[in-house]
Amino acid sequence: MTITRITQANSERIEIDERRYRRVAVIDLGSNSARLIIMRTLPDRFYYLEDEIREVVRLRSGMTEAGLSKEAMARGVATLRMFNRFCESLAVDELIATTTSAVREAANRDEFLAKVASKVGLRLRVLSGEEEAYYGAIGAQNALPLNEGVVLDIGGGSAQLSLIKAGRWQTGQALTLGALALSERFVESDPPTRSEVRRIRKEVRRQLHEIPWLNEASPTVIGLGGTLRNLARVTIRHRKLPLGTVNGYLLRDDEIKYLVKRFRKLPLNRRQRLAGLSSDRADIIMAGAIVAQEVLRWLGANGMRVATYGLREGLFFEEFWAALDYPVPDDLRESHVRNVALRYNYHATHAAHVQRLALRLFDDLAALHGADARERQWLAAAATLHDIGNAINYEDHHKHSQALILGNGLPAFGPEEVAMIALMSRYHRRGRPKLHGFDPLFDNPAVAVQRLRQLAGMLRVAEFLERSRAGLVTDLRVEWDESDITIQLIGEERPVVEMWDAGRKGVDLMEEAFGRTVHLRYDGEAWA
Amino acid sequence: MTITRITQANSERIEIDERRYRRVAVIDLGSNSARLIIMRTLPDRFYYLEDEIREVVRLRSGMTEAGLSKEAMARGVATLRMFNRFCESLAVDELIATTTSAVREAANRDEFLAKVASKVGLRLRVLSGEEEAYYGAIGAQNALPLNEGVVLDIGGGSAQLSLIKAGRWQTGQALTLGALALSERFVESDPPTRSEVRRIRKEVRRQLHEIPWLNEASPTVIGLGGTLRNLARVTIRHRKLPLGTVNGYLLRDDEIKYLVKRFRKLPLNRRQRLAGLSSDRADIIMAGAIVAQEVLRWLGANGMRVATYGLREGLFFEEFWAALDYPVPDDLRESHVRNVALRYNYHATHAAHVQRLALRLFDDLAALHGADARERQWLAAAATLHDIGNAINYEDHHKHSQALILGNGLPAFGPEEVAMIALMSRYHRRGRPKLHGFDPLFDNPAVAVQRLRQLAGMLRVAEFLERSRAGLVTDLRVEWDESDITIQLIGEERPVVEMWDAGRKGVDLMEEAFGRTVHLRYDGEAWA
Question: Please, what are the domains in chain A?
Answer without folding.
Answer: 2-126 (3.30.420.40), 130-313 (3.30.420.150), 332-526 (1.10.3210.10)
